[in-house]
Amino acid sequence: xxxxxxxxxxxxxxxxxxxxxxxxxxxxxxxxxxxxxxxxxxxxxxxxxxxxxxxxxxxxxxxxxxxxxxxxxxxxxxxxxxxxxxxxxxxxxxxxxxxxxxxxxxxxxxxxxxxxxxxxxxxxxxxxxxxxxxxxxxxxxxxxxxxxxxxxxxxxxxxxxxxxxxxxxxxxxxxxxxxxxxxxxxxxxxxxxxxxxxxxxxxxxxxxxxxxxxxxxxxxxxxxxxxxxxxxxxxxxxxxxxxxxxxxxxxxxxxxxxxxxxxxxxxxxxxxxxxxxxxxxxxxxxxxxxxxxxxxxxxxxxxxxxxxxxxxxxxxxxxxxxxxxxxxxxxxxxxxxxxxxxxxxxxxxxxxxxxxxxxxxxxxxxxxxxxxxxxxxxxxxxxxxxxxxxxxxxxxxxxxxxxxxxxxxxxxxxxxxxxxxxxxxxxxxxxxxxxxxxxxxxxxxxxxxxx
Amino acid sequence: xxxxxxxxxxxxxxxxxxxxxxxxxxxxxxxxxxxxxxxxxxxxxxxxxxxxxxxxxxxxxxxxxxxxxxxxxxxxxxxxxxxxxxxxxxxxxxxxxxxxxxxxxxxxxxxxxxxxxxxxxxxxxxxxxxxxxxxxxxxxxxxxxxxxxxxxxxxxxxxxxxxxxxxxxxxxxxxxxxxxxxxxxxxxxxxxxxxxxxxxxxxxxxxxxxxxxxxxxxxxxxxxxxxxxxxxxxxxxxxxxxxxxxxxxxxxxxxxxxxxxxxxxxxxxxxxxxxxxxxxxxxxxxxxxx
Lengths: 451, 290
What we know:
heterodimer, A: alpha/beta, Rossmann fold, six-stranded mixed beta sheet, four-stranded antiparallel beta sheet, 29% helix, B: 3-methyladenine DNA Glycosylase II, Chain A, domain 3, two-stranded antiparallel ribbon, two-stranded antiparallel sheet, elongated
């Protein structure tokens, strides 16, 4: 019997109580909407609109370019204002399409008629998913139509729906499961149609009993799917961790989940798959949480892609009076990206906005000391690595040891070791850099060497 | 007495046998050593810094003796070592122009600002990877000193937020060029002093918004140049060091003072210009007289 936990993990303060019971509502954008061409993993999309073109919600702005790529779809009606570089969540300037919003939200269709998908062939389902521009909404942004087409669909044994939401502060998936459980189950049914030998498992942490109950109700009476309630622990939502929990399989970083017969998708993605295949609705908006101790009315929102983060904050009532946030994160505090400015657009794979009054990193940097060799990082690592030794190898510049002796490339960058480290060392950042340098070296080697 | 004779005999016999054995193994397992390689290794500095691109001085010596590496390939030793190596190899050392690293950014803390508050590993590459653009300029020096850390000659230091090269110490190994995640550093001939200290490809107004010292791509320098050796490409001026005559015309015209030149050179250029002007006036006066 497979145990229902994974190795390692930590218990950060959940901080979910401020927004967990706030129902989803839509946060409408005020200014222009900005759409990134390269927000998914893979080749950036190729624009198919020109300046001053009128556009409708649901219209394709940029087409997938190549196999691993995804469409960019307009989420409002208006006109194309510019195709230019804009600053994005990552802080970099990237190619974007800017749409002047006319505020009418005219759509290309109604998307209210339900199709029966049982008659659809695999290609038809995949092409609908692709047409809807769906990418992994959990964060990585992998094009979903590619993920749903593994080499051998017969070999997939588990389709795992990730509703764990282990990231502190975030509660939008909780709300989505409470209110749209039936549609998520529909989406899962569609996915199971692609994989004849698979079982659908909806994973929910035990700090979300309402969501678990709603999902339980939605899946009862449907074939080949179940809800699995898991003990709350951070980094549960990581792909590796979930696969370990559900199937009992550990697999190396250079293998894909499909290679071990698993497929993991976020609840938001599964919901979008259901809408896309059954109703033909493209991915126009997704759920996000706006929270943090600097926000006056934290809540969960349906956010149109391209909305400015500033509009999103305003939808949540803005800042608390007199509050001055020290840290602004796209996402939660464990995996989120710190932002330099709120004037950047929401991407499809953003799942939250967290504004905090204190910056723990800054405080940590001041207290950082040399490694104490206490070994507390070792049992927290979900990948079973030795963060302490990896950090020593990184600091000595011995990337060969990092890669080959310590298996550093298996690190999933979950941040558990940094969280637990009493010496406050920036371990995850070291590993992120070491991995990037090793990958660059590999690319150079693959390209035939530098000289 | 007998014991002494016996001992001497035994040791003599053993000595002769071992001696033959040594001679045999020395002949049998003789490793051919290139005399040139040994000699070259002798004159190389022996820092094993790897700046030449080989795994230390031994590997470099082997490469030179095989003719795979140039005789002036050791950046640390410079021309004195190159001459000695050339002598050993029996070729004349090309009169390699001494190069020096040059940082194409002048965005000091006084003229530009930080966009975010970066905490974490104090390293430029880590900061770039962290995603958030630390400096308000997307092209400028981050100032965490990845170049300083890698420099074998202690020739590059971050001063007031921008890396500055000390040309006297620089050995032009190019390690900092590779280390800079923003590609700000280039190797230029040391004698050529006129250079653009900016790497921003942004348009003028965007540059102005983030840095008062950045190149705005106005093209005034291009119009001034009589030698066709400064060009604006992608909103950024760049000097062609091969053709630049260092007249200083672009330096004095640049509205943002981003093209640099040392004070001594400036004085020389001004003097020369004055002399030319005086000569022209004199010629004009003479022409008038006649």
